[in-house]
Amino acid sequence: MRTLVKFFSQCFYSSLGIKKTMRWIFLGIYLIMELQKCPLSLNTAHVLLLFQSTYDRCPLELVRCIKHILYTEQRLVREATNSSSPVGGMMDSMSQKYQQINQAFEELRLLTQDTENDLRKLQHNQEYFIIQYQESLRIQAQLSSLATLPPADRQLREPALLSKRATVEAWLTREANTLQKYRLDLAEKHQKTLQLLRKQQTIILDDELIQWKRRQQLAGNGGPPEGGLDILQSWCEKLAETIWQNRQQIRRAEHLRQQLPIPGPIEELLNELNSTITDIISALVTSTFIIEKQPPQVLKTQTKFAATVRLLVGGKLNVHMNPPQVKATIISEQQAKALLKNENTRNDSSGEILNNNCVMEYHQTTGTLSAHFRNMSLKRIKRSDRRGAESVTEEKFTILFESQFSVGGNELVFQVKTLSLPVVVIVHGSQDNNATATVLWDNAFAEPGRVPFLVPDKVLWPQLCDAINIKYKAEVQSNRGLSEENLVFLAQKAFSSSSNNPEDYRNMTMTWSQFNRESLPGRNFTFWQWFDGVMELTKKHLKPHWNDGAILGFVNKQQAQDMLMSKPNGTFLLRFSDSEIGGITIAWVAENPNKAGERMVWNLMPYTTKDFSIRSLADRISDLNHLLFLYPDRPKDEVFSKYYTPPLCKRTLYLRVNF
């Protein structure tokens, strides 16, 4: 079934076209039911007709639904693999949440249809009222014309006209009260609809969209992908459609009131409704102007970079009919704060970005309106005065994307702005590791709705462990993360502690200064710089050995000695160097040549990236004949032989070097 569903989704983007894709989908539904022995297969024709009537005019909705099911399945499988979380409960919770959102949309649809029917009834009654009012004017004109007639004729015709006028005026009085009641009832129904709209919009924008943005931020640290925007866009489009329908109804109600003014509170109510619906649609449009693909958070000057912004309601509001242009500007943290306070920043920027203008394009197949900045480059940067010990790699900037467009034939004009995740600007590759530390801390510990770009100065050690473990697995591209023993080793290094009990570190906090401002005791580098060096070395040269479990890595010199002294001579282990950034050393146990019968643990000088670019770790271990067993007792060839360079290649390399 899953293969068929994937095929349907692919069909939509292929050259088959929408209608032909629909036929394939209907055929696939039939096949799925037959393959799964679905009880509904007895009513296959009925089911197919039901699908066709539901999705024939909006096949993209079915494809989006299928894609969302696939994405959700992949995410749940991934979570089940990486944790022991109750996936079934999460799935039920998510399904229940989506069901509640869809139920609310159905309620909004029914309410909107109800007010539409009431509005038509009101319009019909008002039109009939106007006809009768015109009739009363005609009768009055006839009565006035009686003055020109002889008294006998006037007395003959006047009583009938007076009676008729009285009847019509009585009816007009009653009907005016009825119309006023209809108008008030309609306004009350619109108030109820707008209350539900606000609630639904809050759930989608303040809960679902904010959660997506948070996942996007954590993905910047190597967390799971934030997921697609298709479901969110479909919800936002439904909101836009419902809001616009109700806005048009309120405007028509206002037009009817102006056409036939009747004293009462309805004018004030309609003004309030119009103001409320305008606020709702403004919040929707400004909140759904988002960054789909963030610019790199470590941004090097004179280097090309890309970003994508998207308007989730652009297609539904026909913004693409007059494609808006988006401008990108780099601003400082202080300028971002002023912007959110609506303070006048006089269009200041903190640098110059080349190729920073882009027109939004509408993609018919996906129904998305987006602007793809493909060739931006930061030409120069203007830095602010730094505070205290703050370095240039701790200074945060952001890319401001802004645009202006109108909807409803220039009825409403929107100025939209959105800020990227904070970026750190560097001018040289040597600044990359410190800039990455700033970004890691910000992504991991930023709180929703914060003032740009405030983060806590200290965090609990387990929180930091989660962040660096996610980062480590992403950088090394490995499912083997940091074990509890590894994290204890890191805690010992970070806090200069000797405790081996993980519980001793549960409530300890680590400050930003401890993380990447103050050097480790007796070293000229910080905790993060050391850890980042380990990641880089493993990523570039040691990944297969780390995945195989051949590298213990996070073991100090004394622990290595204690572990090896109980093992036979020739047993060795691999641990990351304490004294050098991005180094790994081999520790092994052997006889002490200066004392017969005494054994000792030896440590080689650390190997670095420079060494492994000449000769691999596996080949170096192969060269050292005194290394026999990888701790605890695995023959080294059993572990490393598959990575040895074949002898012929060694000889060729040797000849080339000597040549």
TrEMBL record:
CDD domains: STAT5_CCD, STAT5_DBD
Any single Gene Ontology cellular-component annotation: nucleus
Subcellular compartments: Cytoplasm; Nucleus
Domain of life: Eukaryota
Segments forming domain SH2: 546-647
SUPFAM superfamilies the UniProt entry points to: p53-like transcription factors (SSF49417), SH2 domain (SSF55550), STAT (SSF47655)
Pfam family, one: SH2
InterPro entries for this protein: p53-like_TF_DNA-bd_sf (IPR008967), SH2 (IPR000980), SH2_dom_sf (IPR036860), STAT (IPR001217), STAT5_CC (IPR046994), STAT5a/5b_DBD (IPR035858), STAT_linker (IPR048988), STAT_TF_alpha (IPR013800)
Main location: cytoplasm
GO biological processes: cell surface receptor signaling pathway
Annotated transmembrane regions: none
Alphabetically ordered keywords of this record: Activator, Coiled coil, Cytoplasm, DNA-binding, Nucleus, Phosphoprotein, SH2 domain, Transcription, Transcription regulation
Segments forming a coiled coil: 91-125
GO molecular function: DNA binding; DNA-binding transcription factor activity
Family of the protein in this entry: Belongs to the transcription factor STAT family.
Record protein name field: Signal transducer and activator of transcription
Organism whose genome encodes this protein: Sphaeramia orbicularis
Gene for this chain: LOC115424786
